[in-house]
Write a structure and sequence with these properties.
Elements: E1 2-6, E2 9-13, H1 20-37, H2 50-59, H3 65-78, H4 82-86, H5 90-97, H6 103-121, H7 129-132, H8 140-150, H9 160-168, H10 177-185, H11 193-206, H12 245-251, H13 261-265
Antiparallel strand pairs: 1-2
Helix pairs in contact: 1-11, 2-8, 5-6, 9-11
The structure holds iron/sulfur cluster.
Iron/sulfur cluster (SF4) binds at residues 168, 207-208, 213-215, 218, 220-221, 224, 226-227, 229-230.
InterPro entries: DNA_glycosylase, Endonuclease-III-like_CS2, Endonuclease3_FeS-loop_motif, Endouclease-III_FeS-bd_BS, HhH-GPD_domain, HhH_base_excis_C, HhH_motif, Nth
GO biological process, one term: base-excision repair, AP site formation
Cofactor: [4Fe-4S] cluster
């Protein structure tokens, strides 16, 4: 592992010759830093059952979790069971979920999901990956979200944030989501997979943005071979987002007053 110093921060830069053991150790250190950085990490889709989480996850395609959470209270009250989704009036459901976008396709998925659950699973959401991925609107990513958060079965959720961050950390060179899932899963204990996924996604939404990551205010700077992808000066704190943006600055050793007030109330992507 090559060391380099940028803007007063010594970072690690992995080369092709980083050993598997070295990569695993660095991955575990990243995991521990994320645990300290994001003690509030959780599934950001509001739900109180596996069915509600399945529905919310389908609605979250091409939509922020915040927008989904604005829509779901009325939806969940109107359709409390799988049978209710199966028998739903299409026009009424479309109106309820319209703010989440792609509402015609999503309505189609929700009605078909309800029908499949009634026909094949007695109206219950199954707790196995092999069954979940056969349901309309539910791919492997959604299935892992449901398993991890509604059934307590450890699962890795490879969404756009997860993919971007593990690539920047050079923990894997895989690009296929299933291969990424297996490669990252091999670096961490299985029991940690679900929370690790939440923490990585939290970091991607609040700190390590796609276009302009807040490298100068990132708690992972010393472990990240992509340090410098975004601005490295402390003023990068203005790029932090979410209600804990000031805490994130403090954790990174940066003056929290550099975080603008609007960043604290800004929606995370
Ligand atoms: S914000 Fe910068 S230093 Fe932090 S993880 Fe992302 S690329 Fe690495």
């Amino acid at each position: 592992m090559r060391r380099r110093r940028l803007a007063g921060v010594t970072t690690s830069s992995t080369r092709a010759d980083e050993t598997d053991l070295g990569r695993t150790r660095r991955a575990r250190r990243i995991g521990r830093a994320l645990t300290e950085t994001h003690p509030d990490a959780h599934c950001e889709l509001d739900h109180s059952s596996a069915l509600e989480l399945a529905v919310a996850t389908i609605l979250s395609a091409q939509c922020t979790d915040k927008k989904v959470n604005e829509v779901t209270p009325k939806l969940f009250a109107r359709y409390p069971t799988a049978a209710d989704y199966a028998a739903a009036d299409r026009g009424e459901m479309e109106e309820l979920i319209r703010p989440t976008g792609f509402y015609r396709n999503k309505t189609d998925s929700l009605i078909k999901l309800g029908q499949a659950l009634v026909e094949r699973y007695d109206g219950q959401v199954p707790g196995r990956l092999v069954d979940l991925v056969t349901l309309p609107g539910i791919g492997r990513k959604t299935a892992n979200v449901i398993l991890g958060n509604a059934f307590g079965v450890p699962g890795i959720t490879v969404d756009t944030h997860f993919h971007r961050l593990v690539s920047r950390w050079r923990l894997t060179t895989e690009t296929d989501p299933v291969k990424i899932e297996h490669a990252i899963g091999a670096l961490y204990p299985k029991r940690d997979w679900t929370m690790l996924s939440h923490r990585i996604i939290f970091h991607g939404r609040r700190v390590c943005h796609a276009r302009k990551p807040a490298c100068g205010a990132c708690t992972l700077a010393r472990l990240c071979p992509s340090y410098g992808t975004g601005p490295t000066e402390p003023a990068a704190a203005k790029l932090l987002k979410g209600p804990r943006a000031r805490d994130l600055a403090v954790a990174a050793g940066v003056d929290p007053d550099l975080v603008p007030a609007q960043a604290v109330v800004a929606d995370v992507p």
